[in-house]
Design brief:
Ferritin, elongated
């Protein structure tokens, strides 16, 4: 068994890096969805949602950076082209969404897809004894579960 400079098994680290790249690509799609609904939202909830969507895409930007840096920390190379993101992403693209309810539903659906990837990653990083990735992803899961609850509450 070959160990990395971090003391982790190289084979597991490679598997975790692949999962992190899939999550990175999916986060980039989520981010673009948020930008689109932020720009294009219409209706009586415009002011409330415009601000909320900006808050969410700002947070997504930070998470994208954290994911890329974690991949690099593990010795991997983060995806960085739109072509790669489109191939790897598990988040559906939301195109021309302007309605408040559709926008919030897009967020819920996107976050649900991210949670599914994150839970798989927690299994992989747990098998690898990779506490750094576990901690990062666990924090993401907690925040996203709360956001889903809030978005569902907004829907009524």
């Amino acid at each position: 068994m070959t160990k990395t400079i971090l003391g982790l098994d190289q084979e597991y680290t490679t598997e975790v890096s692949l999962g992190l790249n899939e999550l990175l690509a999916s986060f980039q799609t989520y981010y673009q969805n948020l930008r689109g609904i932020h720009w294009n939202i219409k209706g009586k909830q415009f002011f409330e949602l415009h601000v909320k969507f900006e808050e969410l895409y700002t947070d997504a930007t930070i998470k994208v950076d954290e994911l890329a840096e974690r991949i690099l920390t593990l010795g991997g190379v983060p995806l960085h082209t739109f072509e790669d993101y489109q191939k790897q992403s598990k988040v559906a693209v939301g195109k021309d969404v302007t309605n408040d309810v559709e926008s919030v539903q897009l967020i819920i659906t996107s976050l649900s897809s991210l949670l599914e990837l994150e839970r798989k990653l927690l299994d992989s990083s747990g098998d690898a004894n990779d506490e750094g990735t576990n901690s990062l992803i666990s924090d993401f899961v907690s925040e996203q579960e709360k956001t889903i609850w809030m978005m569902q509450s907004w829907l009524g």
